[in-house]
Amino acid sequence: MQFFIDTAIIDEVREINAWGVLSGVTTNPSLVASSGRDFREVIQEIAQLVGGAISAEVTALDAEGMIKEGREVAGWSDHVVVKLPLTPAGLQACKTLSSEGIKTNITLCFSVPQALLAARAGATYISPFAGRVDDIGWDGIELVRQIKEAYVLGDIQTKVLAASIRHPQHVVQAALAGADVATVPYKVFTQMIKHPLTQAGLDAFLKDWAKRAGASPETPSSEAGTNPQQGGVTAQGEPVQGGQKQ
Ligand code: G3P
């Protein structure tokens, strides 16, 4: 399962992208509005930063308006995927844009029949909103699983992009449900990476390293064979100038 980040805030994209885990970014009108940035500028900056698949959503409600906007945003970068709502006009626009070779992401999907229609209209991605389905007491991940099963049985190539992800368990469940992609908010990424045993293990390793024979916590690790002239770091990771023994 690939990871996209679900945000239009450039600092969040930059930070998680530095982990080397992103294959794309999803935005929507609410996320772009809350970033306070110009739509075109922020999409182009994100595309430059991440590459991959960058979803930019149209705001027109009629098919003609969506097609016009879709062609425009697709022209902003080769990485742009045009995001369209799951409405009759959205499907019509999807058919036209995908026939022109423009990648599309059909959003606001809440049922398997909707997802089957989007696939037949040529969607590259379908975005079932797991969290919002959970919000009304149904099982959002079960929706993701059923869409994927129906697509596999129908030999449908549209990718299932699990959206409206609210917590790390949603990410696990989406992967186990067979989602091709999960688009994850910044906060959830910062939760996913943490584990108390990882930190405890690292602390113990570094403590033992600092206690190794002949070494004192201040002695730079460079003493252990790297070039003392270049300096090194202490067991606490602080840089040491000139590798001089303290
Ligand atoms: O990008 C669409 C989707 O991920 C929205 O999520 O948290 O507003 O339900 P949420």
From TrEMBL:
Region entry Disordered, spans: 212-246
Name of protein: Probable transaldolase
CDD domains: Transaldolase_FSA
Function: Transaldolase is important for the balance of metabolites in the pentose-phosphate pathway.
Catalytic activity: D-sedoheptulose 7-phosphate + D-glyceraldehyde 3-phosphate = D-erythrose 4-phosphate + beta-D-fructose 6-phosphate
A single Gene Ontology CC term: cytoplasm
Alphabetized UniProt keyword annotations: Cytoplasm, Pentose shunt, Schiff base, Transferase
Catalytic residues identified in the record: 83
Superkingdom of source: Bacteria
Class of the enzyme per the UniProt entry, highest EC level: transferase
One BP term from GO: carbohydrate metabolic process
EC identifiers of the protein: 2.2.1.2
Xref: HAMAP family: Transaldolase_3b
Ranges of biased composition (kind: Polar residues): 218-233
Pathway: Carbohydrate degradation; pentose phosphate pathway; D-glyceraldehyde 3-phosphate and beta-D-fructose 6-phosphate from D-ribose 5-phosphate and D-xylulose 5-phosphate (non-oxidative stage): step 2/3
